[in-house]
Automatic annotation (TrEMBL):
Record-stated family: Belongs to the AspA/AstE family. Succinylglutamate desuccinylase subfamily.
GO biological process, one term: L-arginine catabolic process to succinate
Annotated protein name in UniProt: Succinylglutamate desuccinylase
Key word Hydrolase present: yes
Annotated pathway: Amino-acid degradation; L-arginine degradation via AST pathway; L-glutamate and succinate from L-arginine: step 5/5
Organism: Massilia yuzhufengensis
PANTHER family: ASPARTOACYLASE, SUCCINYLGLUTAMATE DESUCCINYLASE
Transmembrane segments: none
Length: 333
């Protein structure tokens, strides 16, 4: 049974998981907003009169179909907000990334959507998800066209494996200082324990928004993959509150702690089918490795730890050739 058909789910969750924004659209339209439905699973809600002082906030969920916690969290935030629609203080684009994969409870149908937000797609061109990426890119271009300088993109995910920091985020380095500070402050309010600064695109949605639309974009990992309707929503209390406040234009609550900051030492790219990793698939994110340790081998290429300590994030030898199979980070603060 697909998520959209599961009667046990709250109606708002069922609707969002299926990319159905009809009720939300109706409420904001009746309240006088300019509402658009530029693609299936995408809604934009803007002030009727364009206002460059208003922040533009893109929130995406379900870019990976089995990462369901943020779908539930966002569905409840938007449901509550749409019942008092005048409280929306930003121009909003809400995007349910891979509706078909959500329906099947899978990360993707054919290939990883979150590697297709770049012109050069290589072997990913022509896959099922490539067409979806094109639609999301077109909707994103339209959303940010003419937007004021305050631009955000929160791409909400969950991690496959356990993590020494259960909530963490990846932040493109190219975001301008002031916007990056505001973003990292917000991540702290959302109880995100660690931030990884990323110098280079691997084709992700949030990097794309940052690079091409000047958004303060981030991929946020909120816990672990799970079944829709079975997530422990209490773990998202701070993230949910921080999102709600952002959308209502309210100042954030003080962060319990600033996120720890990590730099990217290296993206480990799978070069061939000969790729093997020396860390197991169940290795926790942020597991430390020491200088000289072998991370992976790929034919003649040997990836070794070069700093005194590097921590491994997202180790996954099962990705397609050409894609990132892991991220090595070093502790900064
Ligand atoms: O847990 C994993 O191995 C993957 C979780 C996930 O989907 N992470 C994102 C991070 C995107 C980024 O680097 O900004 C991804 O791999 O797409
Ligand atoms: Zn993901």
């Amino acid at each position: 049974m697909s998520a959209a058909d599961n009667p046990a789910l709250p109606e708002a969750v069922r609707a969002l998981a299926g990319g159905d924004f009809s009720q939300v659209a109706q409420r904001f339209t009746e309240a006088g907003f300019a509402v658009g439905l530029p693609a299936s699973g995408v809604i934009t809600v803007k002030a009727a009169l364009a206002d460059p002082a208003r922040a533009s906030v893109l929130v995406s969920v379900g870019v990976h179909g089995d990462e369901t916690g943020p779908i539930e969290m966002v569905a409840l935030v938007i449901e509550a907000l749409s019942r008092t629609p005048q409280a929306l203080a930003v121009d909003l684009m809400l995007c349910v990334g891979n509706i078909d994969a959500i329906a099947q409870g899978k990360r993707f149908i054919d290939a990883d959507l979150n590697r297709m937000f770049r012109a050069e797609r290589g072997s990913l061109a022509g896959t099922f998800e490539a067409a979806r990426a094109d639609r999301l890119i077109a909707a994103t271009v339209d959303f940010f066209a003419g937007a004021g300088p305050q631009r955000w993109h929160l791409d909400l995910h969950t991690a496959i494996r356990p993590s020494h920091y259960p909530m963490f985020a990846i932040v493109p380095e190219l975001i301008a200082d002031q916007a990056r500070k505001a973003l990292i402050d917000w991540l702290g309010q959302a109880a995100i324990g660690a931030v990884i600064m990323n110098p280079k695109s691997v084709g992700t949605y949030s990097y794309y928004s940052s690079e091409h639309h000047g958004a303060a974009g981030t991929t946020v990992e909120l816990g672990r993959v799970g079944t829709l309707g079975q997530n422990d929503l209490s773990q998202f209390a701070d993230a949910s509150e921080a999102l709600d406040r952002l959308l209502r234009g309210q100042p954030g609550l003080a962060a319990r702690a600033a996120p720890h900051v990590f730099a990217t030492a290296r993206q480990v790219i799978k070069l061939s089918d000969a790729f093997t990793m020396s860390v197991g698939r169940e290795t926790w994110n942020f597991t430390p490795m020491k200088k000289g340790d072998v991370i992976a081998t790929d034919g003649d290429t040997v990836y070794t730890v070069e700093h005194e300590e590097e921590l491994v994030v997202f180790p996954n030898p099962d990705v397609r050739v050409g894609l990132r199979a892991g991220l090595m980070v070093t502790r900064v603060a």
